[in-house]
From TrEMBL:
GO terms for molecular function: lipid binding. This is DegV family protein. It comes from the Bacteria. May bind long-chain fatty acids, such as palmitate, and may play a role in lipid transport or fatty acid metabolism. InterPro entries: DegV, DegV_C, DegV_domain_contain. Keywords: Lipid-binding.
């Protein structure tokens, strides 16, 4: 039975990789300036245009994929006789995994031969993308469905997510920081360092003064925590701040030898909550 990998648009992977590896993307949606737009990895709305609208004062809202959407995709592949692995965005940040589980039950009741696995990665952005990247490469190299699932379950809580943002007001709107913290932090140019914990929640860890120090702090986290760097592809995502993403990459490569660095944009659904200037780093450690 052929295995297919599905994920959702919060993976923030480059569209070229997704197309090359025939990965099905379940689209979340963003509403901005009254227009409902699919988050399809930069095809329907350019990343820069999206972030420029936020900079101009637009307040986007987002919506998850519902169980009907998942069921239609699951049915398509099940009717083709394919085995499905859905590698999903953290259930602590979105209801997509729950929608997928509801759809799985419905489709397996309807199509007795259906073989659907739903995985809550407890990961976000290119942390989710990292897992999908490794899974897709395993599939390409002949791994079985069971081997891919086992690898994901064994490694998903080793995927380190380290974030910083440029403007605390976006986190305030999402309830991640208080109004007082946002006001004082903005006045004093305080930049939070955050990570995604084992439950898949975005958690503030520390604060540094100034953007330059926050970028350096992400590099320090990698130096402290990465394992077998020479075998790893590491990932950097950014909210329309490519120069700083490249600066972070160069800082890392000056001191740590890694196999490859992939840089891509934070997509509209996550970017709606983190804002322009978000910078995030993803790699595998012994734990989160």
């Amino acid at each position: 039975m052929k295995t297919v990998i599905l994920t959702d648009s919060c993976c923030d992977l480059p569209i070229s990789f997704v197309k090359e590896n025939n990965i099905e993307i379940v689209q979340l949606r963003v509403n901005i300036k009254g227009e409902d737009i699919p988050d399809d990895l930069g095809q329907s709305i350019k990343y820069k245009d999206f972030y420029d609208m936020i900079r101009a004062g637009e307040m986007p809202s987002t919506s998850q994929a519902n169980s009907y959407t998942f069921a239609e995709i699951f049915k398509k592949y099940s009717n083709e006789g394919s085995s499905i692995i859905y590698i999903g965005f953290s259930s602590a940040l979105s209801g997509c995994v729950n929608s997928a589980r509801i759809a799985k039950e419905a489709v397996e009741d309807e199509i007795k031969s259906a073989d659907i696995t739903v995985i809550d990665t407890k990961s976000a952005s290119l942390g989710l993308g990292l897992i999908v990247y490794y899974a897709a490469n395993m599939l390409k190299n002949g791994a079985t469905k069971e081997e891919i699932i086992n690898w994901i379950e064994e490694n998903k809580l080793k995927v380190n997510h380290w974030f910083t943002v440029d403007d605390l007001n976006h986190l305030k709107r999402g309830g991640r920081v208080s109004s007082t913290v946002a006001i004082v932090g903005t006045m004093l140019s305080i930049k939070p360092i955050m990570h995604v914990d084992d439950e898949g929640r975005l958690i503030p860890v520390s604060k540094v003064k100034g953007r330059k120090k926050s970028v350096k702090e992400l590099q320090e986290k990698l130096k402290e925590r990465i394992v077998n760097p020479e075998d790893q592809t590491i990932f950097i995502s950014h909210g329309d701040c490519l120069a700083e993403a490249e600066q972070l990459r160069d800082l890392i490569l000056n001191e740590v030898k890694v196999k490859e660095v992939i840089i891509n944009n934070v997509g509209p659904v996550i970017g709606a909550h983190s804002g322009p200037g978000t910078l995030a780093l993803f790699f595998i450690g012994n734990n989160r």
